[in-house]
Structure formats: C-alpha cells, structure tokens
Amino acid sequence: MAAPFGGMGAPHRPVLLRETINFLAAERGGLFVDCTVGSGGHSEAILESSKETRVIGIDRDTEALDYAAQRLAHFGSRFHTVHSDFREIAHVLGDVDSQKVAGILVDFGVSSLQFDSPTRGFSFRFDAPLDMRMDPESDQETAAELLLRLPEEGIARILFEYGEERNSRRIAKWIVEKREQGKPVTTTKELADLVARADRHRKARSIHPATRTFQALRIAVNHELEGLDHFVEAAIDLLQPDSRFVAISFHSLEDRIIKQELRRLSGYCQCPPVAPVCSCGARRVVKILTRRPVTSGATEIDDNPRARSAKLRACEKLVSG
Length: 321
Ligand SMILES: C[S@@+](CC[C@H](N)C(=O)[O-])C[C@H]1O[C@@H](n2cnc3c(N)ncnc32)[C@H](O)[C@@H]1O
Ligand SMILES: [Zn+2]
Hints:
Layout: H1 17-24, E1 30-34, H2 41-49, E2 53-59, H3 62-71, E3 79-83, H4 89-92, E4 101-107, H5 112-115, H6 143-149, H7 152-163, H8 168-180, H9 188-198, H10 211-221, H11 228-238, E5 239-249, H12 252-265, E6 286-288, H13 298-303, E7 311-317
Parallel strand pairs: 1-2, 1-4, 2-3, 4-5
Antiparallel strand pairs: 5-7, 6-7
Helix pairs in contact: 1-2, 7-8, 7-10, 8-9, 11-12
Bound molecules: S-adenosylmethionine and zinc ion (ZN).
C-alpha cells in the first residue's frame, strides 16, 4: 500500500488516553465503537485493554481509515473499519442487536494526519487549495466554494461564531471584495495573508492570526456542530446497561451541546420554569460520571499542545434506560 498521507509524519497522538480507557472500562471486554478513529490511537488502547474487546472504527476520512487499518492490522478481525459519518451510527450498527455495545467514544475535530497534510487545506503552514473537507470523496462544498457562495454577512458570522474572530467583518469584506475583482481566495496562503493583513494593527497574538479563521471555516465546511444532539442520543440508545459513552470536545460550542444533551438524558428537564409540561424530551437513561469536564494535566499539554482545549465528558447507561 502507498504510504498514507503522502508518507507524512507521525500518527495523531490520542488525547486524554488513560482517562478515556478508564471511563470506558474497556478491560471488561465486548464490542466498542470508536466514532472518530483517526490514526487509531484510542482504538488501539481499547484493543489492548483485553483480548475480549472488539472495535468498530468509524471515520468519514478514508485516508485515516486506511492508515488505522494498516497500523492495527495485527488485531485481525477484532478491529473493523467503516467509512461513514458518525451521525449515522444507528445505521452503521444496523446489523448489531441494539443495546449490545459495551462502550462508545467520540473524539471530535481534526486529526494531526489531516492538519499536517500539505494538500488537504486544513493548515496555513502549507500552501494548498482551500479544501478542508474531512471526507474528500464526498461531493460536499470545499472551503473555497463556501467563500465564493456566501454573502459577506454569512462569512463574517461563521468567523465570529465558530472562531470568535475579532476581525470577522473586515476579513469577510476583503474576501468578498477580492471575489468581486475576479480574484477569489482559493488557497490557504491567500487566506492566511489576507487575515494577517486584517490583523496587522493588533498587538502580537499568542497564536497565528489565521488560526481562528481556519478553525471556523473547517467547522462550517464539515457541518461539525449539526446534529450532535441527535447523535448523542442515538449512541446512548445503542449501549448496553452499565456501559459508557465518552466524548472529547475541543470547542466550547461542541462541549455545550454534549453537556446539555447528557443532562437531558440524565433526566434533567431544561424547559423554561413556566412551561406547563416538559417538551425538551428529558428522560433518565444515563448517569453522568463527570460533573465537570475532565481536562488534560500540565504534562500532557506540554507534551501535546492539542490537549490544551480538550474536555472529556462521560456517562453510564442505566440498567432501566
Ligand atoms: C481528533 S481525530 C481522532 C483521533 C483518534 N482518536 C486517534 O486516536 O487517532 C478526529 C477524527 O474524526 C473524524 N471525524 C470528524 N467528524 C466526523 C464525523 N462527523 N463522522 C465521522 N468521522 C468524523 C475526522 O476525520 C478525524 O479523523
Ligand atoms: Zn423539559
């Protein structure tokens, strides 16, 4: 097989690995679903926890799946990959009896394999077409196409909401101006240069000025926040009693959706106090295991800067759920 990711560097380093494996209680064995297999770091640790574990690894990126399948080939039939969006989890597990899953993990965001790729357009460190699709085989719109289609306010809103970019309006205005001059922004370098110019009067930032814009566009291109609430509910419905769901998020909006959904599924009604009847669908099917999100310690953050913004939440399916 050709070297995956153009022979690029080291695999993605799994975040909060020990904590994840402990929460999943993977040593008990059984069928686990890794909804975001990436390079397979978390999957590997689950498979190593007990000879009785099996993992179905889902990813929407076929390059990641090929890479993980190759890396974890020594586990034989205990590791099985599926190319899909994890929001289709119920469909992916269609053949498995419902409530037979021993644990489910989702580790959101991009993997280092994607971020360190010189051709996929996720990073301003490499000059490449502005693509940013996690599933490059899909017919989804690329980041360049999104910037061609959206009105100025739409671009500004994405940069502000998903990236908290302070220069969102100026950046959006300049993107649209270039488009109107017949010179649309189509590469990572063009976008990074434009953002840096929009930021030139600010004091030095601790991160590259284009970081937030690139993050925001990636979230929009991949519709990363859509349907997460339904996904959490569908995943938890597949769990057998006593087994766990673990989610690691890297963005406050993502974490908020997970937090609210876990609260709802732990029976906490989130309807306004004046509502005559509950309409939020609160039901008590899980016990929350993390009153506050678990975060990485200083050593892990020193070792792996990506861990800095990680927040892990976990819950356990109730026997009667
Ligand atoms: C942070 S990485 C996972 C890393 C992995 N835990 C490891 O140890 O290598 C996230 C992965 O999730 C995938 N992904 C993101 N959103 C997805 C979705 N909606 N459906 C399926 N895969 C998704 C990305 O393609 C990426 O490979
Ligand atoms: Zn309610």
